[in-house]
């Protein structure tokens, strides 16, 4: 049996994601575009499974039927609450959490049937002058995906990345993904989700 453990993914990013989701839900414009429902897939390329499914915890160390059922039930409740909270945007929207096969990498996905709003970090700090341990955010563009990369300054001008939130918007569809993945991998996930729901 593997050394994986049943954990509730998204704990690392939970508070941050809820705050960001609320901000984006409020600033996204109301539109009269595509009003079709959004169906986020059960699985994403790269081996990510939706955390509200029992299959996400298959093979995890100590994964009894009761623990797996409890974890997936908790995640279903979180998804329902997240979808309800996003209704404030006034557009069709959906949120869903995913986790990698080894349960080490969570993804938070949000999709809106609306053009993207303004997208920028809460603050800008120069890594060259930031003190060790200071949070540093930067705006990065990869192709047609824009990301806010957040990390910790090392006090010597370098940044240890901790997570990214990426957004892709085209027409009346916007996809956001928040994850501790490396930037290029996070961008690939955004593109995959965008292609899946467009």
Automatic annotation (TrEMBL):
<protein>
    <submittedName>
        <fullName>Uncharacterized protein</fullName>
    </submittedName>
</protein>
